[in-house]
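ok so I'm stuck.
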Amino acid sequence: MSTPVLEISDLHMRIDEKQILKGLTLTIKGGEIHAVMGPNGTGKTSLAQCLMGHPRYQITGGSVRLDGQDMLAMKPDERARHGLFLAMQYPSEISGVTTANFLRAAINARREDGSSISLKEFRDRLDEVMRYLDMDPKFANRYLNEGFSGGEKKRNEILQMLMLKPRIAILDEIDSGLDIDAIKVVSKGVNSLKGADFGALIITHYQRILDYVRPDFVHIMVDGTIVKSGGPELALELDKKGYEWVRTELAQSTNQA
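replied:
not stuck anymore, here's the structure
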């Protein structure tokens, strides 16, 4: 299987009459971990949602392609079948559907007709991944995210990612509200997939998760677009100087122009 490539080119998006994304361009390849950081209200979560096809977000320009396929022409489930995955900032609760049944259905939805995963193969794999993430096996038989703590919901998102093995994963503030032990477990799950056939976009406010999932590229997003990119050292500099440093740099460059 070829190395995945997600190409986001000059992407513009609005919600109702408000323009959120304003010409965002970013390429993520297999073997790469990208981190997008930025202040509240700059469009980071909106980027994640529109990449996955949330109907509230209206694309007004640009393109999104995964392995050359036009993602914007596809429904959310079609994007998922092509290998795009979103770990949400606020995972939904689904009453009446157990975590195990949800995962088995999701796996089979990505397979060809007549090639469903056997119950034994599925249970063996599920038990293995849950042990790896230090998850209580009982969670498999509970309704999806219902009554889960914030940390348990985030681990459940990583469980889904490891079971589905996407080509490109978008992790929207997967570290939000987690204590240090939970961050280590979540990071272990992300790191276990890193390789030529997997790429990830981590959306975060803070440096701390990047101590455990080392990014290859760090991008700073302001007012709906990426204004600065660099290596892991950029996140450290941002952690020391804050977002006001970025705004000052932008103002200075605008004045010089």
